[in-house]
Amino acid sequence: MTEPIAVALKFALLILLFLFVVWVVRGSLRDLAVGSGGSEFDPLLAGGGDNAPIDLRRGVHPRLTVVAARNYETGSSFDLTGGLLLGRDRPAEVIVEDPFASARHARIAPRGPYNFLEDLGSTNGTYLNGSRVAAAERLAPGDRITIGDTEFRYEE
């Protein structure tokens, strides 16, 4: 009587193990696609018959605007066309004079038609709209980026 139950439990365990492996592989492939600049299929970016992407973001000029910073005027902004490195020291393009900032703290980089915020392993973290950034996050107009007491706003 207990033998059929044991066999059923073994099959259930195998099925759960298989589903777990599929879930891990799928998540890894999705992370690799985002990391390499690829993305899942987006019908708005797909072109006509040759499947070439359409530049729907032409005319967009992304910039990082200072909300609160010790060494910059409120309202000053930085062009994000090629991306930016934020940190306490050079080679950062945006110097963050904050005791909670790391030398190379965060990066904003274009991936396809969008900009992404990525923490570079900083000690105190980078925050996007109040949540700590763990992986590259796509930026949207109005997003708040916080490093210590320094705050920026992403605009297009």
> Averaging pLDDT over every residue, what do you get?
79
**Beta fraction of the residues?**
25-35%
The parts where pLDDT drops under 50 for at least 5 residues are 34-56
Write down how many β-strands occur, each being a DSSP E stretch of 2 or more residues: 11
How many angstroms does the end-to-end distance come to? Answer: 68 Å
Helicity, as a percent range: 10-25%
Principal-axis shape: elongated
- The topology string of helices and strands comes to HEEEEEEEEEEE
> How many helical stretches?
1
Q: Largest sheet, described in full?
A: 6 strands, antiparallel
Q: Trace the largest sheet across and list its strands.
A: 2-1-11-10-7-8
Helix-strand category: alpha+beta
User: From the alpha-carbon coordinates, what is the Rg to the nearest angstrom?
Assistant: 22 Å
